[in-house]
């Protein structure tokens, strides 16, 4: 099929995948981006978190969730009683998609075509890591993990049985960032923490 498949080495471990992703030309997003961003965390983790795509900071540093969304995510993992370093963290799409506004690079959501093109990397890394539970952070991740459109509000927080791993859908930490100064931030944050805790218990 079109997309990343021809650049994904067969039965590779995470290290080999992370090296190979830099050559990927599976869609056009590699062009404007600084570099591909693969994963972080142990390659035998019981829990894997899947985000949307690298942001501006991640694109520059080459690591997932090292920017503002990553800080919220780490706070929430701590609040759920987890060590962020013990979780495998990756993204549905491995290159940063953005539009330029003056000197600023503004995040632009990946299209369904980008998600489809990039999914062979996610499938390969999940085959290598074999987590018990995969948490999809937001709609893009959920589409990549489940291969269908998902309404977060309707499906979040449930442990969905799968063949090779269970799946839990929750919000994206960037959605929390946008609420930071609002009165209902605490409630939204707590709901995110509760979902992470549900996932951790299912993975234990
Ligand atoms: N948002 C994501 O989905 N992934 C990152 O790596 C950073 C921000
Ligand atoms: Fe390849 Fe994914 Fe980057 Fe597209 S976004 S070039 S499919 S790694």
TrEMBL record:
SUPFAM superfamilies: Uracil-DNA glycosylase-like. Keywords: 4Fe-4S, DNA damage, DNA repair, Hydrolase, Iron, Iron-sulfur, Metal-binding, Nucleotidyltransferase, Transferase. GO terms for molecular function: DNA-directed DNA polymerase activity. Residues 38-197 form the Uracil-DNA glycosylase-like domain. The keyword rRNA-binding does not apply. The keyword Oxidoreductase does not apply. It comes from the Bacteria. Belongs to the uracil-DNA glycosylase (UDG) superfamily. Type 4 (UDGa) family. This is Type-4 uracil-DNA glycosylase. It comes from Promicromonospora iranensis.
């Amino acid at each position: 099929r079109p997309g990343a498949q021809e650049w994904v080495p067969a039965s590779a471990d995470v290290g080999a995948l992370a090296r190979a992703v830099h050559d990927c030309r599976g869609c056009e997003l590699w062009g404007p981006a600084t570099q591909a961003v693969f994963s972080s965390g142990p390659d035998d983790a019981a829990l894997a978190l899947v985000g949307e795509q690298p942001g501006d900071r991640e694109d520059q540093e080459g690591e997932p969730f090292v920017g503002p969304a990553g800080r919220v995510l780490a706070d929430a993992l701590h609040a759920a009683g987890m060590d962020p370093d013990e979780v495998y963290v990756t993204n549905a799409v491995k290159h940063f998609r953005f539009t330029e506004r003056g000197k600023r690079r503004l995040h632009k959501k990946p299209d369904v075509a980008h998600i489809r093109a990039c999914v062979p990397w996610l499938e390969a890394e999940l085959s290598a890591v074999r987590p018990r539970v995969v948490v999809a952070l937001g709609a893009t991740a959920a589409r990549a993990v489940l291969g269908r459109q998902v309404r977060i509000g309707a499906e979040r927080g449930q442990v969905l049985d799968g063949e090779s791993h269970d799946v839990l859908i929750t919000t994206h930490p960037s959605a929390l960032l946008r609420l930071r100064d609002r009165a209902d931030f605490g409630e939204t944050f707590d709901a995110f923490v509760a979902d992470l805790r549900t996932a951790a218990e299912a993975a234990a």
